[in-house]
Design brief:
The protein is α+β, with helices and mostly antiparallel strands. It contains 4 helices and 3 strands, in the order αβααβαβ. The chain has one domain: 2-Layer Sandwich (Ribosomal Protein L30, Chain: A). 48% of the residues lie in helices and 18% in strands. The chain has a 3-stranded antiparallel beta sheet. It is globular and about 45 Å long.
Protein backbone atom coordinates (compact mmCIF):
# COMPACT_ATOMS: atom_id res chain seq x y z
CA UNK A 1 0.00 0.00 0.00
CA UNK A 2 1.34 3.40 -0.94
CA UNK A 3 1.49 6.14 1.60
CA UNK A 4 -0.01 9.42 0.54
CA UNK A 5 2.34 12.34 0.06
CA UNK A 6 1.51 15.10 2.48
CA UNK A 7 1.33 18.58 1.03
CA UNK A 8 1.99 21.80 2.92
CA UNK A 9 -1.08 23.67 4.07
CA UNK A 10 -0.68 26.37 1.41
CA UNK A 11 0.45 24.33 -1.58
CA UNK A 12 0.33 26.39 -4.78
CA UNK A 13 -1.19 24.12 -7.43
CA UNK A 14 -1.35 26.99 -9.91
CA UNK A 15 2.42 27.39 -9.73
CA UNK A 16 2.92 23.66 -10.33
CA UNK A 17 0.56 23.62 -13.31
CA UNK A 18 2.02 26.74 -14.91
CA UNK A 19 5.57 25.57 -14.35
CA UNK A 20 6.36 28.84 -12.66
CA UNK A 21 9.02 28.96 -10.04
CA UNK A 22 12.74 29.04 -9.82
CA UNK A 23 13.41 25.84 -11.76
CA UNK A 24 16.04 25.85 -14.45
CA UNK A 25 17.06 23.26 -17.02
CA UNK A 26 20.39 21.53 -17.46
CA UNK A 27 20.77 21.32 -21.22
CA UNK A 28 23.15 18.98 -23.01
CA UNK A 29 24.37 20.13 -26.44
CA UNK A 30 25.44 18.04 -29.41
CA UNK A 31 29.04 17.54 -30.41
CA UNK A 32 30.69 15.41 -33.07
CA UNK A 33 33.32 14.00 -30.74
CA UNK A 34 31.72 11.63 -28.23
CA UNK A 35 30.08 8.29 -28.93
CA UNK A 36 26.49 7.47 -28.00
CA UNK A 37 27.77 4.96 -25.45
CA UNK A 38 29.96 7.57 -23.77
CA UNK A 39 27.11 10.10 -23.57
CA UNK A 40 24.69 7.46 -22.25
CA UNK A 41 27.16 6.26 -19.60
CA UNK A 42 27.86 9.86 -18.57
CA UNK A 43 24.15 10.70 -18.20
CA UNK A 44 23.64 7.58 -16.09
CA UNK A 45 26.64 8.45 -13.92
CA UNK A 46 26.18 12.21 -13.54
CA UNK A 47 22.42 12.76 -13.84
CA UNK A 48 21.34 9.40 -12.41
CA UNK A 49 19.25 8.60 -15.49
CA UNK A 50 18.16 5.04 -16.11
CA UNK A 51 19.38 3.42 -19.32
CA UNK A 52 16.26 4.16 -21.36
CA UNK A 53 16.13 7.82 -20.32
CA UNK A 54 19.83 8.28 -21.07
CA UNK A 55 19.44 6.68 -24.51
CA UNK A 56 16.46 8.88 -25.34
CA UNK A 57 18.34 12.02 -24.29
CA UNK A 58 21.36 10.98 -26.38
CA UNK A 59 19.20 10.54 -29.47
CA UNK A 60 17.39 13.84 -28.92
CA UNK A 61 20.74 15.62 -28.56
CA UNK A 62 21.99 13.97 -31.74
CA UNK A 63 18.95 14.80 -33.87
CA UNK A 64 17.75 18.09 -32.34
CA UNK A 65 21.08 19.56 -31.26
CA UNK A 66 20.27 19.79 -27.56
CA UNK A 67 18.13 18.25 -24.84
CA UNK A 68 17.05 19.27 -21.34
CA UNK A 69 18.44 16.44 -19.23
CA UNK A 70 17.54 17.69 -15.75
CA UNK A 71 15.17 20.22 -14.18
CA UNK A 72 15.74 21.80 -10.80
CA UNK A 73 17.13 24.63 -8.76
CA UNK A 74 20.26 26.39 -9.99
CA UNK A 75 22.15 25.26 -6.88
CA UNK A 76 21.39 21.62 -7.74
CA UNK A 77 22.15 21.87 -11.46
CA UNK A 78 25.44 23.78 -11.24
CA UNK A 79 27.52 20.84 -9.89
CA UNK A 80 25.97 18.52 -12.48
CA UNK A 81 26.85 20.95 -15.26
CA UNK A 82 30.45 21.09 -14.08
CA UNK A 83 30.66 17.30 -13.98
CA UNK A 84 29.35 17.05 -17.55
CA UNK A 85 31.83 19.70 -18.72
CA UNK A 86 34.69 17.94 -16.91
CA UNK A 87 33.78 14.79 -18.81
CA UNK A 88 34.12 16.75 -22.06
CA UNK A 89 30.44 17.32 -22.85
CA UNK A 90 28.88 20.68 -23.66
CA UNK A 91 26.24 21.69 -21.12
CA UNK A 92 24.44 24.88 -20.14
CA UNK A 93 21.81 25.90 -17.63
CA UNK A 94 18.83 27.68 -19.12
Amino acid sequence: MRSKKELPEKYDFEQEISGAGNDSFLTLHNDDIHTFDYVIETLIDVCEHDTVQAEQCAYIVHYKGKCDVKKGAMETLQPLKLKLINKGLMATIE
